[in-house]
Structure formats: structure tokens, C-alpha cells
Amino acid sequence: MKMVLGLAVFVGFGGTLAGAHFVPWMSHARLPSHTSVVANGGRSEQFLIRLPADRIAATDAAAGGLRSMAGEGAMVLPAQFVAEPLLVEHFKVRDAVGSVVGVAARHWSASGSGATTTWSLLIPSRGAVILSAAGEERGALETALRASGYSPGSAWEGQVTVPMMSQDEVGTVAAGTGEFEGLGGSYTESWTVAGVDEVGQLNATVEINTITRRPQ
Amino acid sequence: MKYLLVVLLGLLLGAAGAGATLYYNPFSAPAVGMPNATDRVLHYSLPDHVLAFALGDAARWFGQDTGDDSLWEDTIDRTGVLGLVLNDASNQPAAIASRLMAASSETDLLLRGVLLSDYWLVSIPGEGTLFMRADSNAWPFLKETLVPVWYFDRPWKGPSEYWPTVGPGAENNGVVVGVSGIFRGTEGSVVEHYELTAFDPARESALAEGELHLNLPGPQVAVQE
């Protein structure tokens, strides 16, 4: 009886320690990655953001125009930053088939040397990838919408696609962790707006198309 | 039947002993990164400097609010998204930060502690944008403060300070990559420090003062005053 008790204590002790060491307590659910190989090498992958559903938060300053938020959920910038050309947005991120796979932050800012956009995309089961590009012009979305008949304060429906970089430009993959560690590559970003309601809420899809490859 | 009861009792005793061993295990609080005297320091106060936060449903370990927009999907339910204002040494707003957090699959309760992966995107108007990656060990905070005070109603022995950064860079520091502006192309290190100044489970409130110690090469790094 004593031997059985001792053995059970040993197994309980060892099993618990082994579980603490080997069990992946903090693993994240992973969906299949929808990637394809491109002709000149590298891996192509698309990420989508559906607005308004996937917007988590955005700053409230004027620089954001329709993309900034007002009221509940807005990131209220300190007075020192209200006049700065700065827009910070947080989103959920979907894969090419529309399933939520991660979260992202987008920082747009402008200085004397021009505007820049930086994305931090976190796919918890895979890692993070940092994308960087020359930023779009301030109010790029509003300019394109006005050209298609949108007027502030009234609802609008249609289909306008706004590239967030000029036609012959692409952004770069600046850094990565996990599966994206050590990868280089490029990306493009476009916003397709299908509607704006009376209070300025966007009904839109953001497409981020990446091509990643391991530098030779 | 008697043997079955003895086995069950033995397993329970063994598991309890292992639990106590894990709780007091010194290996789960490994060496942490420490700052240099020349680091640039950005400060934040919680909750005053929080612009927005959203928390995954499975990351609500202690029943806290999930924030502005719950991250309920299975793939992101152990993540958090935080928007923060960072102040400079003169306590003026200097930067806006987005902190994306995820429970780390590197978590090892026996040897490494409870790890969080932190991904910071920090924009400093007029200077540029930085990306920071840090592994943070939450175990010392859980063990010394949250579990005893929250679960066992022990009195809080604060204020208490923590240096959570344990990697993934050299000397247990986090890694900084300059993405745009004057930071573009630079690489450096980061260490986080925070001090819990108030903690009241009854009111579900906590106050903290945090610091990011940035070490970047080049003249753009201002020395802490």
C-alpha cells in the first residue's frame, strides 16, 4: 500500500511538472494560410479588413478625415497632437477568404520629407510582419469620394477604389517575427469604398497584398 | 477500490507538491534586460495614458472588461490591442504607441514563466516610427501581486516594480527596428519597466507608471534628463 501511494505521488508530481513544461498552454488557434507561390519566387498572401466591422479604434484628429473616429471608442489625442498630421488606426485582420486571423495597427504620419505609412500585422499563431511605405496624401479617400459625387453630411453609395500608394510604387516588408522572421518583400494597399452613411461611417474593404521572400 | 483511492490520493498529493514547486520555482523568473544610462526613456501612466484598448475573451484571466471592442474570434482571443500616449522626460506627450500583445507559445511554467509577446508600433511626430518586439514575463507580477491579492485576499504590499522584458534580443532586451523618418534603418534595444502604484481588487482598479528604455545608435537619441 505504501509503495502504491509513493508511486502515485511520484507520478502526480512528475506528471504535473512535465505538463507545466511540455503542454502548449498559450497556443493560438490557427487557420490554413491562403498563400500562393509567385512566378519569380516568393509567397503571395492577401489580408483583408472589412469596415466598419473590423475597426477596433482610430484617433480623433482632423488628419484622419472619414477614417478618424468621433465619440465612443475614439482614441482622443492629447492637445499637443491634435494639429499633427497623424492618424493611428487599429483593426482586426482577415485572410483572403474572410476569416479573422489577427489584429493590426496602422500609423500614418507626415513630415517635411513626406508622408509615411507603417503597418504592424500580428497573426498570433504565426508572428508579426511590419510593412512600410510612402504614405498616401492627406485626405486621399475624401478626394476620391468627392470626385465620385460624395458630399459630407449625406449618405453615399457606389464603388471607389483608392490605392494608398502611387501606381508604380510598392511598400516594403520592413521586419518580421515568427514565420515572417528574416523575410523581405513588398506590398500594396488599396481601400474600396462601397458607401458612407450620414455620420461619415465608411463601408469599405481594405486589401493588403503582400509578396514575401527570403533574401538571397 | 482501496487501491484506487490510494492512487488518487497519491496523484493529488504529487500534483499539489508540484504546484507548490512551480509557484516558488526560481527558474520561472529568469534574468531580465536592464537599461543603459544613455537610454531614451518614454513614460506612460495607466490608465491615464490609455487611448483605447481591446482584449481577447480568453485573455480575461481576472474578469476584467474586454474594452472597446472584444476580440472574440478563436484566432485572436488571447490577444490585446492597446493605444497609448508616451511622454518624454519633461512629461510632455512625445509619441503615440500601438501595443499589440499575444500570449506567447514559448510560455513554459517550469523554466521560463508566463510569457507575452509584445509588438509596439511607436510614432514620434517629427521624428518617425519605430517597431519594437519584446518578450515579457508576467509570472513575477502574477505570483507576487495578482494571485495573492486577487485570489487569496492578502493585503497588497505595494508599490511594487517589475522589469518584465526577457528577450528576444541580446542581454535579454527587446529589439527595436527603425521603420521611418530619422529612425529608418537603425536597430537597437528596448527594456520595459513599470511600477504598480495602486492595486485594489475590490474596485477592480490598478494604477501603474511605465517606462520604455530605448537604446538606439546615432545622434537622434536624446539622453534622459
Topology:
The complex is a heterodimer of chains A (216) and B (225).
Chain A: H1 2-22, E1 35-37, E2 43-51, E3 55-59, E4 74-75, H2 79-82, E5 86-94, E6 100-111, E7 114-123, E8 127-134, H3 140-147, E9 156-163, E10 171-176, E11 184-196, E12 202-213
Parallel strand pairs in A: 3-4
Antiparallel strand pairs in A: 1-2, 2-12, 3-5, 5-6, 6-7, 7-8, 8-10, 9-11, 10-11, 11-12
Chain B: H1 2-23, E1 40-46, E2 50-55, E3 79-87, E4 93-103, E5 115-124, E6 128-137, H2 139-152, E7 160-162, E8 165-167, E9 174-181, E10 187-200, E11 205-215
Antiparallel strand pairs in B: 1-11, 2-3, 3-4, 4-5, 5-6, 6-8, 6-9, 7-10, 9-10, 10-11
Describe this structure in words.
- The complex is a heterodimer of chains A (216) and B (225).
- Chain A has 216 residues and is of the alpha+beta class.
- Chain A has one domain.
- Chain A contains three helices and twelve strands; from the N terminus they run αββββαββββαββββ.
- In chain A, strands 1, 2, 3, 4, 5, 6, 7, 8, 9, 10, 11 and 12 form a twelve-stranded mixed β-sheet that branches.
- In chain A, strand 6 and strand 7 form a beta hairpin.
- Chain B has one domain.
- Chain B is of the alpha+beta class and 225 residues long.
- Helix content of chain B is 16%, strand content 41%.
- Chain B is built from two helices and eleven strands.
- In chain B, strands 1, 2, 3, 4, 5, 6, 7, 8, 9, 10 and 11 form an eleven-stranded antiparallel β-sheet that branches.
- In chain B, 44% of the residues are buried.
- Chains A and B meet through helix 1, strand 3, strand 4, strand 5 and strand 6 of A and helix 1, strand 2, strand 3, strand 4 and strand 5 of B.
